[in-house]
Amino acid sequence: LRFDEKVRVVVFKSEVKGVFCAGADLKERAKMDDAEVGHFVKRLRNLMDEIAALPVPTIAAIDGYALGGGLELALACDLRVAASSAKMGLIETTRGLLPGAGGTQRLPRCVGIGLAKELIFTGKQIDGQQAFSMGLVNHTVPQNEEGDAAYQRALTLAKEILPQAPFAVKMGKLAINRGMEVDIASGMAIEGMCYAQNIPTRDRQEGMAAFREKRPPQFIGK
């Protein structure tokens, strides 16, 4: 996906009704020794980092349970859409663990330190509406009979992104992600570098021409 220029947006959904991702298999984990557990979690953390580093926008469609590593997967995405009946939580402390695939870092960056600490310390589960109220998800929707309401809303959101200039969107994502990790002066420099890369693109010229000619732009990602 990283190198496929035809890919504009990636939507993560589950094929299992009622479950987005239930996290690690604790029965499997129980059979591992300490070294194996450490290696497993490191690989999981690397996977989440790879998802977060995808150059195109990513959307998690949470139609059911997103617990532990399942919520960490959703947090690794740029945007999240949840059914109001979905259940989310970093429940690791209820099993003698702590989030190990990015949850302790991405959740506070998403909802703030106080709420993140409360959710991680208590291991509580929240529904889609509660997640929306605290900014954990971008949209919440009532679940439908098919059980894919979040996925359908995620597709609608993806279709809002698709017409926009692909390279500009990629540079926007890069500027935001890198800029959030540094002070604002450094972030401004990052934005400037990303903007400079966008200036010579054919899509920028097309955007200007379409505005002058009062027509929809036809972006090609170049």
TrEMBL record:
CDD domains: crotonase-like. GO terms for biological process: fatty acid beta-oxidation. GO terms for cellular component: mitochondrion. One of its GO terms (molecular function) is enoyl-CoA hydratase activity. Keywords: Lyase. It holds the Pfam family ECH_1. SUPFAM superfamilies: ClpP/crotonase. InterPro entries: ClpP/crotonase-like_dom_sf, Enoyl-CoA_hyd/isom_CS, Enoyl-CoA_hydra/iso, Enoyl-CoA_hydra_C. It comes from the Eukaryota. Belongs to the enoyl-CoA hydratase/isomerase family. This is ECHD2 protein. It comes from Corythaixoides concolor.
